[in-house]
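Feature request disguised as a bug: please show the residue count (75) next to TusA-related sulfurtransferase in the output. Example input:
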Amino acid sequence: MEVTKVLDAKGLACPMPIVKTRKAINELDSGQILEIHVTDKGAKNDLSAWAKSGGHELIKQEEEAEVLKFWIKKG
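Example output, currently without the count:
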């Protein structure tokens, strides 16, 4: 998996991780991958729902030392 861009949204509360993710993904071409790092636990549901509603694909998500990581492929 080749990541095109990494977004550091650690320490931000809802809705800022989604706002920053939307801005970052708009800078990518279709098929490119955005890696997002967040600490807001609510982002787990928010980002997966946002990706689906926007026609993007949530490829993977994992938690590592209180940081949630998501990989979203732009639709």
